[in-house]
Amino acid sequence: MITQVEITHTFNATRELVFRSFTESEHLQNWWGPKEWTFHVAKADFRPGGVFHYSQNPADGDVMWVKFVYNEMITPERVVYTSYFSDEDGNIVRAPFNENWPLETLNTLTFTENGGKTTLTAIVAPAASATEEELKTFGESQVMVHEGFSGTFNQLEDYLSKELK
């Protein structure tokens, strides 16, 4: 059974800039999430133990809240956070698209620079508390996870190309 998804993307930008794009809300709010969705930052505290809580809303759908809790942050090398769908107050709720989606996922981002370009490796896995059904759902959803992160990273690439001009 597939227990994690790995996504790798190389950006034409320094590691420091790519890292800041993930750890500063003035950057993150310009590219994170599905394309064409409205994005609102409710709380941004980028440090171990800190929280990033936001809402995103498609033009034709209901608002969706998500919360990250940062476990580790090593500037500019690595970010580890737990993410989950939440209500407006930050309480864990079931994913709106599948009630068997893991309540929490562990996300590890590693930033490696080579020749002025940065390779980001993201590993997404269900949290240790996931049930068998949640693990099965996650395994069956690997394409969705990969496509979601890849699309988001493409948006970051577009954002960085504008930032660097």
TrEMBL record:
Pfam families: AHSA1 (PF08327). InterPro entries: ASHA1/2-like_C, START-like_dom_sf. Residues 12-160 form the Activator of Hsp90 ATPase homologue 1/2-like C-terminal domain. Belongs to the AHA1 family. This is Uncharacterized conserved protein YndB, AHSA1/START domain. It comes from Virgibacillus salinus.
